[in-house]
Protein backbone atom coordinates (compact mmCIF):
# COMPACT_ATOMS: atom_id res chain seq x y z
CA UNK A 1 0.00 0.00 0.00
CA UNK A 2 1.27 3.41 -0.91
CA UNK A 3 1.87 5.90 1.86
CA UNK A 4 -0.33 9.00 1.86
CA UNK A 5 2.70 11.07 0.79
CA UNK A 6 3.53 8.70 -2.06
CA UNK A 7 -0.04 8.60 -3.46
CA UNK A 8 -0.05 12.10 -5.02
CA UNK A 9 3.37 11.48 -6.53
CA UNK A 10 2.21 8.16 -8.02
CA UNK A 11 -0.92 9.66 -9.57
CA UNK A 12 1.09 12.60 -10.91
CA UNK A 13 3.48 10.19 -12.63
CA UNK A 14 0.58 8.22 -14.10
CA UNK A 15 -1.02 11.44 -15.38
CA UNK A 16 2.21 12.58 -17.00
CA UNK A 17 2.52 9.24 -18.76
CA UNK A 18 -1.08 9.33 -20.01
CA UNK A 19 -0.98 12.86 -21.48
CA UNK A 20 1.65 12.15 -24.17
CA UNK A 21 -0.08 8.88 -25.03
CA UNK A 22 -3.45 10.63 -25.57
CA UNK A 23 -1.84 13.46 -27.52
CA UNK A 24 -0.07 10.93 -29.73
CA UNK A 25 -3.35 9.14 -30.44
CA UNK A 26 -5.01 12.46 -31.40
CA UNK A 27 -2.04 13.29 -33.62
CA UNK A 28 -2.27 9.96 -35.41
CA UNK A 29 -5.99 10.41 -35.88
CA UNK A 30 -5.48 13.86 -37.40
CA UNK A 31 -2.70 12.59 -39.62
CA UNK A 32 -4.85 9.73 -40.86
CA UNK A 33 -7.71 12.10 -41.59
CA UNK A 34 -5.37 14.40 -43.49
CA UNK A 35 -4.06 11.45 -45.50
CA UNK A 36 -7.59 10.29 -46.35
CA UNK A 37 -8.51 13.79 -47.49
CA UNK A 38 -5.39 13.95 -49.60
CA UNK A 39 -6.24 10.59 -51.18
CA UNK A 40 -9.67 12.00 -52.01
CA UNK A 41 -8.14 14.95 -53.85
CA UNK A 42 -5.81 12.63 -55.76
CA UNK A 43 -8.70 10.32 -56.73
CA UNK A 44 -10.64 13.35 -57.98
CA UNK A 45 -7.71 14.35 -60.19
CA UNK A 46 -7.79 11.03 -62.04
CA UNK A 47 -11.59 10.71 -62.28
CA UNK A 48 -11.66 7.68 -59.96
CA UNK A 49 -15.29 7.86 -58.82
CA UNK A 50 -15.20 4.43 -57.16
CA UNK A 51 -12.32 5.39 -54.88
CA UNK A 52 -13.94 8.75 -54.18
CA UNK A 53 -17.08 6.98 -52.98
CA UNK A 54 -15.09 4.55 -50.81
CA UNK A 55 -13.06 7.35 -49.21
CA UNK A 56 -16.15 9.41 -48.46
CA UNK A 57 -17.82 6.35 -46.94
CA UNK A 58 -14.82 5.84 -44.65
CA UNK A 59 -14.82 9.42 -43.38
CA UNK A 60 -13.05 11.62 -45.91
CA UNK A 61 -14.27 15.22 -45.82
CA UNK A 62 -15.75 16.16 -49.19
CA UNK A 63 -14.76 19.82 -48.83
CA UNK A 64 -11.32 19.36 -47.27
CA UNK A 65 -8.77 21.62 -48.94
CA UNK A 66 -4.99 21.62 -49.18
CA UNK A 67 -2.85 24.49 -47.89
CA UNK A 68 -3.72 26.55 -50.96
CA UNK A 69 -7.45 26.09 -50.40
CA UNK A 70 -7.87 23.66 -53.29
CA UNK A 71 -10.56 21.02 -52.85
CA UNK A 72 -11.23 17.65 -54.48
CA UNK A 73 -13.95 19.26 -56.58
CA UNK A 74 -11.47 21.81 -57.93
CA UNK A 75 -9.02 19.02 -58.78
CA UNK A 76 -11.74 17.11 -60.60
CA UNK A 77 -12.80 20.20 -62.55
CA UNK A 78 -9.25 21.20 -63.44
CA UNK A 79 -8.49 17.74 -64.84
CA UNK A 80 -11.75 17.59 -66.79
CA UNK A 81 -13.05 14.70 -64.72
CA UNK A 82 -16.80 14.80 -65.31
CA UNK A 83 -17.69 11.64 -63.36
CA UNK A 84 -15.61 12.71 -60.36
CA UNK A 85 -17.17 16.17 -60.48
CA UNK A 86 -20.70 14.74 -60.52
CA UNK A 87 -19.90 12.26 -57.75
CA UNK A 88 -18.46 14.91 -55.45
CA UNK A 89 -21.37 17.26 -56.07
CA UNK A 90 -23.85 14.48 -55.32
CA UNK A 91 -22.04 13.88 -52.03
CA UNK A 92 -22.29 17.50 -50.93
CA UNK A 93 -19.23 19.23 -52.37
CA UNK A 94 -19.57 23.01 -52.03
CA UNK A 95 -19.46 24.47 -55.55
CA UNK A 96 -18.56 27.95 -54.29
CA UNK A 97 -15.59 27.34 -52.00
CA UNK A 98 -12.67 29.59 -52.99
CA UNK A 99 -8.93 29.04 -52.79
CA UNK A 100 -6.72 31.37 -50.79
CA UNK A 101 -6.39 33.61 -53.86
CA UNK A 102 -10.10 33.59 -54.70
CA UNK A 103 -10.35 30.94 -57.42
CA UNK A 104 -13.40 28.67 -57.52
CA UNK A 105 -14.40 25.48 -59.29
CA UNK A 106 -16.03 27.68 -61.96
CA UNK A 107 -12.85 29.68 -62.67
CA UNK A 108 -10.89 26.42 -62.93
CA UNK A 109 -13.47 25.13 -65.44
CA UNK A 110 -13.25 28.31 -67.51
CA UNK A 111 -9.48 28.45 -67.40
CA UNK A 112 -9.28 24.89 -68.71
CA UNK A 113 -12.01 25.18 -71.31
CA UNK A 114 -14.31 22.65 -69.64
CA UNK A 115 -17.62 23.65 -71.22
CA UNK A 116 -19.63 20.62 -70.06
CA UNK A 117 -18.35 20.89 -66.51
CA UNK A 118 -19.10 24.62 -66.51
CA UNK A 119 -22.72 23.80 -67.36
CA UNK A 120 -22.87 21.33 -64.45
CA UNK A 121 -21.43 23.87 -62.01
CA UNK A 122 -23.79 26.60 -63.16
CA UNK A 123 -26.76 24.28 -62.65
CA UNK A 124 -25.50 23.68 -59.12
CA UNK A 125 -25.49 27.41 -58.39
CA UNK A 126 -21.88 28.38 -59.03
CA UNK A 127 -21.33 32.07 -58.33
CA UNK A 128 -20.24 34.11 -61.34
CA UNK A 129 -18.15 36.67 -59.44
CA UNK A 130 -15.20 34.49 -58.34
CA UNK A 131 -11.83 35.64 -59.70
CA UNK A 132 -8.43 34.16 -60.42
CA UNK A 133 -5.24 35.57 -58.89
CA UNK A 134 -4.96 37.91 -61.89
CA UNK A 135 -8.49 39.20 -61.36
CA UNK A 136 -10.26 37.38 -64.18
CA UNK A 137 -13.72 35.93 -63.68
CA UNK A 138 -15.16 33.03 -65.68
CA UNK A 139 -16.64 35.26 -68.40
CA UNK A 140 -13.33 37.07 -68.90
CA UNK A 141 -11.50 33.74 -69.11
CA UNK A 142 -13.98 32.35 -71.63
CA UNK A 143 -13.59 35.51 -73.72
CA UNK A 144 -9.81 35.29 -73.49
CA UNK A 145 -9.74 31.71 -74.77
CA UNK A 146 -12.40 32.12 -77.50
CA UNK A 147 -14.83 29.78 -75.73
CA UNK A 148 -17.99 31.22 -77.25
CA UNK A 149 -20.21 28.36 -76.03
CA UNK A 150 -19.06 29.01 -72.48
CA UNK A 151 -19.54 32.75 -72.96
CA UNK A 152 -23.11 32.00 -74.03
CA UNK A 153 -23.68 29.78 -70.96
CA UNK A 154 -22.37 32.40 -68.57
CA UNK A 155 -24.31 35.26 -70.11
CA UNK A 156 -27.49 33.17 -70.03
CA UNK A 157 -26.94 32.66 -66.29
CA UNK A 158 -26.58 36.41 -65.76
CA UNK A 159 -22.85 37.13 -65.96
CA UNK A 160 -22.11 40.86 -66.16
CA UNK A 161 -20.71 41.67 -69.64
CA UNK A 162 -19.20 44.90 -68.31
CA UNK A 163 -17.33 43.49 -65.31
CA UNK A 164 -13.67 44.57 -65.35
CA UNK A 165 -10.39 43.14 -64.08
CA UNK A 166 -7.69 45.06 -62.21
CA UNK A 167 -6.54 46.98 -65.29
CA UNK A 168 -10.07 47.92 -66.30
CA UNK A 169 -10.36 45.36 -69.08
CA UNK A 170 -13.86 44.12 -69.81
CA UNK A 171 -14.67 40.77 -71.49
CA UNK A 172 -15.29 42.65 -74.77
CA UNK A 173 -11.89 44.37 -74.61
CA UNK A 174 -10.24 41.04 -73.86
CA UNK A 175 -11.92 39.36 -76.85
CA UNK A 176 -11.13 42.34 -79.11
CA UNK A 177 -7.47 42.36 -78.10
CA UNK A 178 -7.17 38.78 -79.39
CA UNK A 179 -9.38 39.10 -82.45
CA UNK A 180 -12.06 36.70 -81.20
CA UNK A 181 -15.23 37.81 -82.97
CA UNK A 182 -17.53 34.99 -81.81
CA UNK A 183 -17.42 35.85 -78.09
CA UNK A 184 -17.35 39.57 -78.94
CA UNK A 185 -20.58 39.23 -80.90
CA UNK A 186 -22.29 37.41 -78.03
CA UNK A 187 -21.13 40.04 -75.55
CA UNK A 188 -22.44 42.86 -77.73
CA UNK A 189 -25.76 41.09 -78.22
CA UNK A 190 -26.04 40.82 -74.44
CA UNK A 191 -25.48 44.50 -73.74
CA UNK A 192 -21.70 44.92 -73.44
CA UNK A 193 -20.81 48.62 -73.45
CA UNK A 194 -19.08 49.35 -76.75
CA UNK A 195 -17.16 52.48 -75.76
CA UNK A 196 -15.97 51.55 -72.28
CA UNK A 197 -12.26 52.17 -71.73
CA UNK A 198 -9.61 50.55 -69.54
CA UNK A 199 -7.22 52.32 -67.16
CA UNK A 200 -5.18 53.52 -70.14
CA UNK A 201 -8.22 54.90 -71.92
CA UNK A 202 -8.19 52.12 -74.52
CA UNK A 203 -11.55 51.04 -75.90
CA UNK A 204 -12.35 47.66 -77.42
CA UNK A 205 -11.82 49.25 -80.85
CA UNK A 206 -8.35 50.47 -79.90
CA UNK A 207 -7.48 47.03 -78.56
CA UNK A 208 -8.64 45.48 -81.84
CA UNK A 209 -6.66 48.03 -83.88
CA UNK A 210 -3.57 47.46 -81.76
CA UNK A 211 -3.86 43.68 -82.20
CA UNK A 212 -4.16 44.39 -85.89
CA UNK A 213 -4.91 40.92 -87.25
CA UNK A 214 -8.69 40.82 -87.54
CA UNK A 215 -10.37 43.53 -89.59
CA UNK A 216 -13.74 41.80 -89.13
CA UNK A 217 -13.52 42.61 -85.44
CA UNK A 218 -13.14 46.32 -86.21
CA UNK A 219 -16.10 46.22 -88.57
CA UNK A 220 -18.20 44.44 -85.93
CA UNK A 221 -17.34 47.01 -83.26
CA UNK A 222 -17.99 49.98 -85.54
CA UNK A 223 -21.32 48.44 -86.60
CA UNK A 224 -22.30 48.41 -82.92
CA UNK A 225 -21.39 52.05 -82.41
CA UNK A 226 -17.67 52.14 -81.58
CA UNK A 227 -16.28 55.67 -81.93
CA UNK A 228 -13.66 55.35 -84.62
CA UNK A 229 -11.67 58.46 -83.70
CA UNK A 230 -11.95 58.22 -79.91
CA UNK A 231 -8.42 58.34 -78.48
CA UNK A 232 -6.72 56.57 -75.58
CA UNK A 233 -5.28 58.47 -72.62
CA UNK A 234 -2.19 59.46 -74.62
CA UNK A 235 -4.33 60.90 -77.41
CA UNK A 236 -3.70 58.08 -79.89
CA UNK A 237 -6.62 57.08 -82.09
CA UNK A 238 -7.26 53.52 -83.30
CA UNK A 239 -5.58 54.45 -86.60
CA UNK A 240 -2.42 55.62 -84.83
CA UNK A 241 -2.33 52.40 -82.79
CA UNK A 242 -2.73 50.28 -85.92
CA UNK A 243 -0.04 52.19 -87.79
CA UNK A 244 2.35 51.81 -84.85
CA UNK A 245 2.14 48.05 -85.32
CA UNK A 246 2.59 48.27 -89.07
CA UNK A 247 -0.82 46.66 -89.57
CA UNK A 248 -1.47 47.82 -93.13
CA UNK A 249 -4.78 46.03 -93.69
CA UNK A 250 -6.09 47.28 -90.37
CA UNK A 251 -5.04 50.83 -91.25
CA UNK A 252 -6.85 50.56 -94.58
CA UNK A 253 -10.02 49.23 -92.92
CA UNK A 254 -10.03 52.04 -90.37
CA UNK A 255 -9.57 54.69 -93.06
CA UNK A 256 -12.40 53.29 -95.16
CA UNK A 257 -14.57 53.30 -92.01
CA UNK A 258 -13.92 57.00 -91.44
CA UNK A 259 -10.71 57.31 -89.41
CA UNK A 260 -8.99 60.71 -89.57
CA UNK A 261 -5.71 60.17 -91.43
CA UNK A 262 -3.88 63.17 -89.93
CA UNK A 263 -5.03 62.87 -86.31
CA UNK A 264 -2.27 63.54 -83.76
CA UNK A 265 -1.76 62.21 -80.24
CA UNK A 266 -0.77 64.39 -77.26
CA UNK A 267 2.85 64.43 -78.44
CA UNK A 268 1.82 65.49 -81.93
CA UNK A 269 2.56 62.06 -83.40
CA UNK A 270 0.54 60.97 -86.45
CA UNK A 271 -0.22 57.60 -87.97
CA UNK A 272 2.37 58.39 -90.66
CA UNK A 273 5.08 58.97 -88.07
CA UNK A 274 4.19 55.71 -86.33
CA UNK A 275 4.31 53.85 -89.65
CA UNK A 276 7.80 55.28 -90.28
CA UNK A 277 8.92 54.24 -86.79
CA UNK A 278 7.55 50.76 -87.47
CA UNK A 279 9.57 50.57 -90.73
CA UNK A 280 6.37 49.65 -92.56
CA UNK A 281 6.75 50.70 -96.19
CA UNK A 282 3.32 49.32 -97.10
CA UNK A 283 1.60 51.34 -94.38
CA UNK A 284 3.48 54.50 -95.41
CA UNK A 285 2.41 53.97 -99.05
CA UNK A 286 -1.19 53.44 -98.01
CA UNK A 287 -1.29 56.56 -95.86
CA UNK A 288 0.19 58.66 -98.65
CA UNK A 289 -2.46 57.31 -101.03
CA UNK A 290 -5.16 58.40 -98.58
CA UNK A 291 -3.84 61.93 -98.21
CA UNK A 292 -1.58 61.78 -95.17
CA UNK A 293 0.18 65.12 -94.58
CA UNK A 294 3.91 64.36 -94.34
CA UNK A 295 4.73 67.95 -93.38
CA UNK A 296 3.06 67.73 -89.95
CA UNK A 297 5.48 68.17 -87.04
CA UNK A 298 5.26 66.62 -83.61
CA UNK A 299 5.86 68.57 -80.38
CA UNK A 300 9.61 68.19 -80.83
CA UNK A 301 9.33 69.78 -84.27
CA UNK A 302 10.10 66.53 -86.10
CA UNK A 303 8.41 65.39 -89.32
CA UNK A 304 7.96 61.89 -90.66
CA UNK A 305 10.93 62.52 -92.96
CA UNK A 306 13.10 63.50 -89.99
CA UNK A 307 12.25 60.18 -88.39
CA UNK A 308 13.00 58.24 -91.57
CA UNK A 309 16.39 59.96 -91.85
CA UNK A 310 17.21 59.21 -88.22
CA UNK A 311 16.32 55.55 -88.80
CA UNK A 312 18.38 55.57 -92.02
CA UNK A 313 15.46 54.01 -93.87
CA UNK A 314 16.23 54.96 -97.48
CA UNK A 315 13.20 53.27 -98.99
CA UNK A 316 10.76 55.17 -96.78
CA UNK A 317 12.70 58.38 -97.39
CA UNK A 318 12.19 57.84 -101.11
CA UNK A 319 8.46 57.30 -100.63
CA UNK A 320 8.13 60.50 -98.62
CA UNK A 321 10.00 62.53 -101.28
CA UNK A 322 7.54 61.64 -104.04
Helix content: 40-55%
Question: Total strand count, please?
Answer: 0
Strand and helix order? HHHHHHHHHHHHHHHHHH
Biggest sheet, open or closed, and with what strands and sense? none
> How widely separated are the two ends?
121 Å
Structural class: mainly alpha
Q: How do you describe this structure in short?
A:
This protein has 322 residues and is mainly alpha-helical. It has helices at 6-45, 49-57, 72-78, 82-90, 105-111, 115-123, 138-144, 148-156, 171-176, 181-189, 204-211, 215-223, 238-244, 248-256, 271-277, 281-289, 304-310, 314-321. Among the domains are: 43-133, Serine Threonine Protein Phosphatase 5, Tetratricopeptide repeat (Alpha Horseshoe), CATH 1.25.40.20; 231-322, Ankyrin repeat-containing domain (Serine Threonine Protein Phosphatase 5, Tetratricopeptide repeat, Alpha Horseshoe).
Protein architecture, described:
The chain has 322 residues and is an all-alpha fold. The protein is 55% helix and 0% strand. Among the domains are: 43-133, Serine Threonine Protein Phosphatase 5, Tetratricopeptide repeat, CATH 1.25.40.20; 231-322, Ankyrin repeat-containing domain (Serine Threonine Protein Phosphatase 5, Tetratricopeptide repeat). The chain has 18 helices and no strands. Helix 11 (204-211) packs antiparallel against helix 12 (215-223).
Amino acid sequence: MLSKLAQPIFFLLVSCLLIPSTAMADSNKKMNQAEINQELRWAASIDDAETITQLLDTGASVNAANKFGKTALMNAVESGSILATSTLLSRGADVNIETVVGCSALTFAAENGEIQITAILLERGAKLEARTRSGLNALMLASQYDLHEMVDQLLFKGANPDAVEKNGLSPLMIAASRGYTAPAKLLLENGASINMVDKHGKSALIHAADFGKNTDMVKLLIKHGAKINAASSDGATPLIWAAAGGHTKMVETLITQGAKVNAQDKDGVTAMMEAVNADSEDTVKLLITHGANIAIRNKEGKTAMDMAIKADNRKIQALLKK
